[in-house]
Each structure stands twice: as C-alpha cells, then as structure tokens.
Amino acid sequence: MADLELAVSTVILALLPGSCPTAVNAASPAGPTGERPADALRLHLPLVRRTREPFAERWALPGGWVTPDERLSSAARRTLEETTGLRPSYLEQLYTFGAPRRSPTGRVVSVVYTALVRAPEAADVEVGENVRWAPADALAETVGDLAFDHAEIVDYALWRLRTKVSYAAIAQHLLGELFTLAELRHVHEAVLGKPLDPANFRRTAVASGSVEATEHVQTGAAHRPARLYRAVLPPGGAAGGYPPWQSRPELG
Amino acid sequence: MADLELAVSTVILALLPGSCPTAVNAASPAGPTGERPADALRLHLPLVRRTREPFAERWALPGGWVTPDERLSSAARRTLEETTGLRPSYLEQLYTFGAPRRSPTGRVVSVVYTALVRAPEAADVEVGENVRWAPADALAETVGDLAFDHAEIVDYALWRLRTKVSYAAIAQHLLGELFTLAELRHVHEAVLGKPLDPANFRRTAVASGSVEATEHVQTGAAHRPARLYRAVLPPGGAAGGYPPWQSRPELG
DNA sequence: GCTGTTAGTGTCACGCCCACCTGAAGTTGG
DNA sequence: CCAACTTCAGGTGGGCGTGACACTAACAGC
User: Fold this and answer.
1) What is the predicted pLDDT for the residue at B94?
2) What ipTM, to 2 d.p.?
3) Going by C-beta distance under 8 Å and a sequence separation of 6 or more, which residues neighbour residue B17?
4) Residues in A lying within 8 Å of B, measured between beta carbons
5) Which CATH number is correct for B171-246, 1.10.10.10, 3.40.50.150, 3.40.630.30, 3.20.20.100?
6) Which of A26, A35, A187, B159 has its CA 20 to 30 A from that of B229?
7) Was domain A5-165 assigned CATH 3.50.50.60?
C-alpha cells in the first residue's frame, strides 16, 4: 500500500467551431448533406502543459491528487477547475487506469472522469500559456504525443461517448438551456462523425421524450424560425441509461 | 494522499440451481412457459465472512489490497482466488467507489470488478465456514445486511449485467465450453428474470454470430437431442461492446 | 414581390423482432 | 413393438422503429 498514489483525471469535451475557441453560435453549421466545412463544429478538449518531470513540456489531461475528505467526483471537479477554470455541466466516471508502469516515477492509479461543458462557457475561459483547446479527433497532429497513457484514455472516452450518445440523452449538456433541434443534431453529428437525416432525427429525439418544445423560437435567421427545445430530465429512477442510484451520474 | 488505501473487490456470479451449490446439470431447467420452479437456475455470488472489525461477522464481497507491482485486474484475480478459490472465466472493471465515509476506519477507495465463473467449477469449491454462496436476488433475506456499501455495489453489478447481456455476448462465460442453446437461454432467463421464446432466442443467438454449431449433440435426455454450440470470440477489434484495446476486457 | 434557405411534416419501404404454428427426432412406458 | 410425450428446429405473418425522400412553411435579402 505504500508507494501508491491515487489521482483523478478528466476528459472534458466541448463543441467548438474549427480550431479556435470562439462561441458556438459564430460557426456556420455543417451542411446536412455530407462533407464537413472548415468551420464545422468539432469536439475539443482542454489540455494542460506539464511543467515538471515526468513528461515536462508535454500536454496532459487536467487532473490532480485526491484529498482524504472529498469524494472522487468532487476531486475531479476541483482539479478540473483549478487547472482549467471550467465547471462541467455533466460528469461521469469513465474508468480507473492502474497499470504498474503508467508513470515512470512510481505507481499511480488514476480514476478518470468524462465531462461535458457548454460551448459558450468554454469560450469564456481564457486560454493561457499552459492550457490549450485541441480537437479531439486530431490530437497527435496538433499537440503531439500526450503525457503518460493519456492518448489511450482519450480514445476510450471518445469511444464511450460515441456509443453512449446513441442511447442516453447526454448530448444536451454540450448546449445551453434552450436549443434548436438542428443544434442538437449538429452535436450528434460532431460526436458520431457522420451526417444525420434532419427529419428522422427530429422524430426520434421528440419520441424519446428527452427534449420538450418551448414557446420560444429562434429569430434572425434567414429562414423559417426554429422552435427552441429544453432538455427534460429523466423522471427519477433508472431512465437514461443509469442505475437508480446514479440518475445523477456522479456518485462515488 | 496519506491515509488513503486502495482496495479491489469482485462481484463474481455463477449460475447455481436453487440455493445449494451443486452442478448446473443436476438442475431441472425452468419451464419455458412462465413461472419459475423451485429448482430453477439462479444467479449466486460467493460472500466472505469478515473476521475483523469493522463489520466483523458480517458478509462481504471478496477482495483485498492492491500491491505496488500488480495490475488492478491481477489484484482482483489474486484476492478472489485467495479468499474463495475461484478463477473467473470473465473479468471486467465495474466502477470505483470512493466516498469518504465508506469505511468507518478510514478512507478506502475500492476498484470493483464484475466476474463470471462456470457453474461446475463453482460447485467444486468447498464452502467453508467463512465462504458462502448466496442468491443474488435475495441477499438480504439469506445473509442479512452486507458489510460496507457492498449491497449497493451488488445492485449496480446486477444492473450492469442485465443491461449488458442484451447486447454483448457474455452469458456464455457462465457455461462450459460446449452448451445447448436451451442452456444459454436459461442463462439469459436467469439474468433477465423473465422467460424467453425458444425459437426467437435461437434465431437471434445464431444470427448474432456469437455462437457456432458443433458436430456434437446432447444425448440421454428424454426428448430429441439438442445440438451443442461453442462460443465464438469476437474477431479481433471492437466487436462485442468493447473498445479496441479492451477486446479482452481486463486491461488497466 | 421574388428567391433562396432552412424548419418542420408526411409518406413509403425495408428490416428486425416477436408471437404463434407445424413438423422432426429422440426417449419413456406399457 | 407401438403409442405418447417432450423438446428441437424451422417457418410465417404482423407490428414497430428506422432510413430515404418529397413536400409545405416561414423568414431574410435583394
């Protein structure tokens, strides 16, 4: 039990246009028919530049050590805000990585969380010298090799998000309180990496009961105004792909 | 980081008839039409009686401490065999529980694994004074309150197994190498708690590609002999509900 | 007012899953 | 040896969800 340290790390994702951290509304959304424009919405995640060995100067997931009196999810929230200033709208435990040689300096077991953050909130965070938004699907090209096994962790988090977004209503946490169905569809398209049929997406989204229409409509666009929708929480209990005690998926 | 200890626990399940640990073949299987006979197959899990405080004399999940040089999954296997003598045919990380007051003696973070074991092997293990098989769906009635938060953990493991057995081919790990489709269906019925149509189960099981027919047939039964099937491993990669690096789901 | 663009609705076809039915192939009991 | 029984194995029709696509609605810009 000696020489064993417990850390938390977080893969936190936001939907940002292209490659620069500006608001989501500034982006021209991807055309529904196919190829992705240069300014399409893409999943981004903040990385932190390491200042100390091991892996000094390399980019890593935000994280830190667990203190004795806080929950694991609280440690994830705290270290995330300390290193990036972000407060997630969704937080879920992903996996615990504990291979003996993950870190060259000793045994480190990392409880990894996946988090989502709304895009405008993400854009408000100033990107300093040591924090950087990187597109999730091209990490190696933009920031090189990540520290530790963090590239593997990101791959797993993206795989889980892709599989989960098709059966659980979590994509809404990447948007604001009110959103159009087109925006929600763009989120799914960015996560899944393929275009979706607007009519069919509308049907399944409404029929699933995960969103409800509001009185408001979106104005100012050069087309028929879109109705704004609101996320509807699972009605207490095991809805939404969680066990009863995890309807808010952050226990433990 | 001081005063924080890392443990592993395992929810290991086997399919035993009724309430006594005898071989699976000795059981008269549940009728396909509805109500469960007294000797139907039920999910059981081994519990270990605690000999020390806290929770002395109470029943708990098998587990132990992580040593500095072993993987988390290895620690789960090792502590499971040390306390129960069982070697699982399937092992998968379930969740990491780390609430500050889980243990009254200090902060303990437990990486919990779910495991499956074949029934005849389970029956071979002698049940001593301090190990006991208990039916998974009636723990409170048979062994009373479990130690720590282990009842909650078992509930979560069962919920995950139920949801996962419908899309991943894992029920086979509760049977031997060769099995009839009726036996595999009985496993699904025991996990899901409801009867399944034999004809439809056959079609979906064969069509999914998770089992393949062999030349052998089962003899000795008072009816037409059933063909024996073999589990077919997912063909390398992301089949079976796992990410690429987790096609054998025990990394970390 | 015309046009372009996107929101939203309706319709049809295909495929999957489920309930049910029919025949086949063994064993048991007289 | 023969009848009865039980389960395997395969087939069929209907319901439902999803994908593809056509059509109408509403607003901005010129």
Assistant:
1) 95
2) 0.86
3) B24, B26, B27, B39, B40, B41, B42
4) 1-6, 65-66, 68-72, 93, 95-100, 107, 109, 111, 152, 155-156, 159-160, 163, 238, 241, 243-246, 251-252
5) 1.10.10.10
6) B159
7) no
